[in-house]
Amino acid sequence: MKTHVIQQSEPLLWQRLLTFGNECYEKQNWLQAEYYYKEAELQLDYLWSTEPTNINLLMAWICTLHNLSTLFEQQGDKQIGLRYLLIPHHRMLNLTQSKQATEDVKLIAINALKLTFPPILVFSQKNPICNDCKQSIQAFQQQLESQQEVVH
């Protein structure tokens, strides 16, 4: 495994890491792709923690976790694949309910849920999941639908 990537928090490092991860994924070099995606996730998580209203960093973080999900699903490890879909979803849910989060951050998290939930729904339709997860997904979907009706 290559470890020549220097740990720093420069804004473009995460982009390079994702590019390397994508290149490795395309070559089916799973371990190397996993390494780069995880490094990108760490960088993005740190950068986003310093700029919690930076939507670009948040979206890149979510996409990186979704890349990890796809990577593990491709390898047949569906449980870990689902876990990487649930991490950003649960974090956004927690932010929407946080007393410490600003209203701007809560609004960003609410909007991000529209990106984190559909992949979970698709995953649950393609793969067997536990009954508790099914019920949780159905309840969240109903909640989203009821909120959309109120808005219209």
How are the SSEs ordered, and which strands pair?
Layout: H1 13-26, H2 30-50, H3 55-74, H4 78-97, H5 103-126, H6 131-151
Helix pairs in contact: 1-2, 2-3, 3-4, 3-5, 4-5
Structure characterization notes:
The protein has helices at about 15-25, 30-50, 55-75, 80-95, 105-125, 130-150. With about 150 residues, it is mostly helical. The longest helix is centred in the C-terminal third of the chain and has 24 residues, at about 105-125. The protein is flat. Residues about 1-5 have low confidence and may be disordered.
N-to-C span: 52 Å
| Helix content estimate | over 70%
Mean pLDDT: 86
What are the segments in which pLDDT stays under 50 over at least 5 consecutive residues?
A: 1-6
The largest pleated sheet is described as: none
What's the number of extended β-strand segments?
Answer: 0
- The proportion of strand residues reads under 5%
SSE pattern: HHHHHH
- From the helix content, strand content and strand pairing, which structural class follows? mainly alpha
Number of H/I helices: 6
Categorize the overall geometry. Answer: flat
Work out the radius of gyration. 16 Å
